[in-house]
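User: Before I run my own analysis I want an independent prediction to cross-check against. Here's the chain; please return only the structure tokens and, at the end, one sentence I can use as a sanity check.
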Amino acid sequence: MNTYKTQNLTKWLAGLMLVLGVAAAGQAQTLDLPAATTKPITTQPLQKDDLSQILETDRADLEKLMRESVLNRLTSERQQVVMEIRDDLLFDEDQKDAAIAIIEKNPANTQKDNIERICKAFAQLDAGFAGAYKLYTEGKYPEAAEAFKKIANAKEVRYFSAAKSYLLGDSLYKAGVARLDAPTPTTNPVDAAKEDKAARKMVWDAYDAYRELLENMPDRVSFSASAALSSAQACDKLGRGFYALEMYVFCIKNFSLTLDKDQVAIILEKAKNLQEIYADPMASVTKMMGDVKTRLDAIDSGKETQDKQGKIVALLDDLIRTAEEKPKPPPNPNPDKSKKKDPSKGEGEGEGEGEGEGQGESKSKSKGKGKGKAAGNNPSSPAQTSSLPDGAGRTLAPTSEIRDGGDKGDWAELSPREREKIKATKEAVMSERYRGMISDYFERLSERPK
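Assistant: Structure tokens:
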């Protein structure tokens, strides 16, 4: 098996278990957690008897292990926020005890609950945040977005900053989606187009805010996990299905241990539908066109037929945009020299060829370590930096450019012994259907030029 794919699949196998329903239902349970410690985990190498015991681990033990991992992560997050509140000299000292009580009293041990109680605690401590958060909780999302724009700073890395950045993105997203779903009534097509463009721009602005949070504060786990899911939903809403699929898989890979049951259901359904379409997009288009033709032949041009026609146009548009957004290889300034290769140099090495994965970023007089090949026109090789529609002038970066948790991710929450337990029992709990879906995705990902 390809090493790249193996490393990726192994790294987030624990998260995939949760997505397949192993532990999602047990997040709100309360367990006796061990005292927090800064000592590193130490384990002895697994012996033959240990492996035999692991292979006999039953599903109940595995579920308990996953629940403990969820609770440890969410509990640790609340403890970190409490420490931040106590140490911040700018917060009102008289309000700190009340804010900490909001965080610590009867936690539900879910991602959504952590976000809500953390935001309420910061509203207790900061008047500017309190005013913007009040607008948000009242459903006044355009006004809340404007208020959070004035105080959000994604370059900071505190939980207070994560809360502001997340609520900025969420206010923009909800305001934009509301305008897309219920545009201002007008009979003027020019005004209708302007309204649609403005609504779409709000959703893209939300996407930008979410991505800034993911890139700068991925370890603020409840906020970044929710931002990852919302980023996928934003791409999906705007018809960028391939990038939505990437973001859904990214969300599973990096944040599965804090997803609640409803979020798991959303991701599975969306990822499954998109995977079916983008596994062979042209075959999908052909099938959809066949369905429309059958309806038109039956003199059925009703709303359902029109909706199918719209989906065909949207899918074709996404495929074209994804292909166009792929960076072109840099021109070869010395074509004659390129024909005379130095046999002592391996493929992809040489002056001016760039470094990395053949993505068109040339570095003068540098030796590239990639294969020097540009990705093909298949949307399975999306742009590393892609222009967005609507003339916004921003870029749509791939999930690979988001700094994931690395050794700080969900997988690292487990000891080596626990990791072996999960790996050894995966066949018993991992659905063949979804294992194929995820494996296919990483197979295509691993085929990208290195």
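Sanity check: The chain has two domains: 3-37+46-279+398-446, 283-329.
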